[in-house]
Amino acid sequence: MIDAMRHISRRLFSRFSIVVVLAVLTVLLGGGFVAYVRDVGGVRSGLPPVVLRFDGQPVSKETFLQYVRLGQLTYFATPEESSSLSRDNLYELVLNDMIANYVLFAAAADRGITVDDAEVQKAIEEMRKRDPDHYAALQHAVGDEAAIRDFIRRDLIIRKFLDAIFESDPIVVTDEEIAALYAAAREQQEATDTSLPELAQVRDIIREEILRQKAMQRVGQLVAQLRPQHTVEVLWQAENSS
């Protein structure tokens, strides 16, 4: 049960980075994901050459598909989960995440936040050491090493920006919140006639989960606050759109 809760916690953090947009804050640079890439080659014809424009700058189909493949590394733990989502739903999810990524990156750039080559190289080396299969999966999703470096640089910049936001206004998790979530989990477990570890055994895991949920919420609020400052033109439409 403890391992299952850790898995849920990792997936939540992975989802947070996507809400932040394939910022891959924890996907490229963190752990706790399954390296699975679904082939999207068969759906390329459904995309225009330029998928969206952000502040007048075009985002090509090729760039969008890189984010799609990265999204599939992040959203899903198994091929079955990926297959359960329609192409249009996946595209809409990734488009929203891309836009959030661009919004956060623009905010970081406005603050003058930068990342040098040494920081990028360190992140790559740590990634390769932590999980060699991780880097191979990213190569499949993104392309060559230069493209991966660009993604990592972008994500490190966004990470620095968010770190500064959270440092200036830290997220607080109270004992009462931990107890409430544990009580809700115990109620659910009793309904399914299964066991749950004592609170002392899972307190840190629950605290981490609440922390990540609050981080997701705060990042979402931040993106919603910053997005009106930008012009976003989406040029792709789902097939079932009117």
Structure notes:
This protein is mainly alpha-helical and 242 residues long. Helix 1 packs parallel to helix 9, helix 2 packs antiparallel against helix 6 and helix 4 crosses helix 7. The protein has nine helices and three strands, in the order H-E-E-H-H-H-H-H-H-H-H-E. The longest helix is centred in the C-terminal third of the chain and has 28 residues. A three-stranded antiparallel beta sheet has the order 2-1-3. A hairpin with a 2-residue loop joins strand 1 and strand 2. The N terminus is likely disordered.
- Cross-sheet strand order for the largest sheet: 2-1-3
SSE order, one letter for each helix or strand: HEEHHHHHHHHE
The end-to-end span amounts to 46 Å
For the secondary structure, the number of strands is: 3
Q: Bin the strand percentage.
A: under 5%
Largest sheet properties: 3 strands, antiparallel
Q: How confident is the prediction overall: mean pLDDT?
A: 77
Oligomer: single chain
The residue ranges in which pLDDT falls below 50 over 5 or more consecutive positions are 1-45
Shape: globular
H/I helix tally = 9
Q: Return the structural class.
A: mainly alpha
Gyration radius, in Å: 19 Å
Helix residue percentage:
55-70%
Core attributes:
globular; mainly alpha; single chain; 3-stranded antiparallel sheet; 5% strand; disordered N terminus; 242 residues; 9 helices
